[in-house]
Design a protein that fits this description.
The chain is α/β, with parallel strands linked by helices. It has a single domain (3-245), classed as Rossmann fold. It has 9 helices and 9 strands. The chain has helices spanning 12-23, 39-42, 59-73, 96-124, 145-165, 203-213, 221-233, 245-264, 266-270, and strands at 3-6, 27-32, 49-53, 78-81, 87-88, 127-132, 170-177, 190-191, 240-243. The strands form 2 sheets. The chain has a 7-stranded parallel sheet with strand order 3-2-1-4-6-7-9, with helices on both faces. Strands 5-8 form a two-stranded parallel sheet. Helix 1 links the parallel strand 1 and strand 2 (27-32). Helix 1 crosses helix 7, helix 3 (59-73) packs parallel to helix 4 (96-124) and helix 4 (96-124) runs parallel beside helix 5 (145-165). It is globular, with a radius of gyration of 20 Å.
């Protein structure tokens, strides 16, 4: 049976994905900064569930979590990089500390986890890396510039990673959810400490939107977990998996807009080359 290792399982999508994996009789390494918050997930799954302490910004904890996973189950077959958090603030409002802390979790922590499991996957010539991105990894809304930047980084790295790992028998998938009823827009959401009145009608509106929409999102994290498993189990899994009607519609509109710009400015773009000789 496959062994899944999932980061950020204390709430939201990570929690429901861990439950779905265990419900199928598979092994699950369920991680959180405080293992007590995920003890209920592995309860009743003594043979297949393992709760492990893990802060993805701590290299020592990453190494120990992977060691425990491999010692208990022999291998990590699927890594789900789910740990992360949302951040709101205009580009000018954000502090350097806030930005670096965000990237330490959303991007650098994800990279460190990936690097930690890859030696084992390469040795077995099999495995799957699932990186939880966002619809914000395809476009950016006012007030979400740095959150989107962290997810754009995840998507760019993942695109190269899949091409590097494909010949080695290891798959990569990026998951792009829209709004789901998790803690993302509630307890887990962080905001810039500084606010500037000039951005009240742009980034400021984004702040208010999250306060009013939390708990009313259309996305069901249980169904999202099942969709991820279905995609990974497919004969031809996608590289990018949008989750939620809003994600499909918004990403589609963004792709259309980019195509229009590309076509409209194609002659100017091509004209930047040296003239073709002959």
């Amino acid at each position: 049976m496959p062994t899944w290792m999932i980061t950020g399982c204390s709430t939201g999508l990570g929690r429901d994905l861990a439950r779905s994996v265990l419900a199928r009789g598979w092994n699950a390494v369920v991680t959180a900064r405080d293992p007590a918050t995920v003890a209920d997930i592995v309860a009743g799954h003594a043979d297949t569930g393992l709760a492990v302490r893990l802060d993805v910004t701590d290299g020592v904890e990453i190494a120990e979590a992977v060691r425990q996973a491999e010692a208990r189950f022999g291998a990590v077959d699927v890594l789900v990089n789910n740990a992360g958090y949302g951040y709101r603030g205009a580009v000018e409002e954000a502090s350097e500390t806030e930005i670096r802390t965000l990237f330490d979790t959303n991007f650098f922590g994800l990279v460190a986890m990936t690097q930690a499991v890859l030696p084992g996957m390469r040795a077995r010539s099999r495995g799957y890396i699932i990186n939880i991105s966002s619809v914000g990894g395809r476009m950016a809304a006012p007030g979400s510039g740095f959150y989107s930047a962290s997810k754009f980084a995840v998507e760019g790295m993942s695109d190269a990673l899949r091409k590097e790992l494909r010949p080695l028998g290891i798959g990569v998938m990026v998951v792009e959810p829209s709004g789901f009823r998790t803690d993302f827009a509630g307890r887990s959401l962080r905001q810039s400490a500084r606010t500037i009145d000039a951005y009240a009608q742009t980034a400021g509106l984004r702040r208010k939107e999250n306060l009013t929409n939390d708990g009313r999102q259309a996305g069901d994290p249980v169904r999202a977990a099942d969709a991820i498993i279905k995609a990974v189990e497919a004969e031809k899994p996608p590289f990018r998996l949008a989750l939620g009607r809003s994600a499909v519609e918004r990403i589609g509109a963004e792709m259309d807009a980019q195509r229009r710009d590309l076509d409209t400015w194609a002659d100017v773009a091509i004209g930047a080359d040296y003239p073709v000789q002959g």
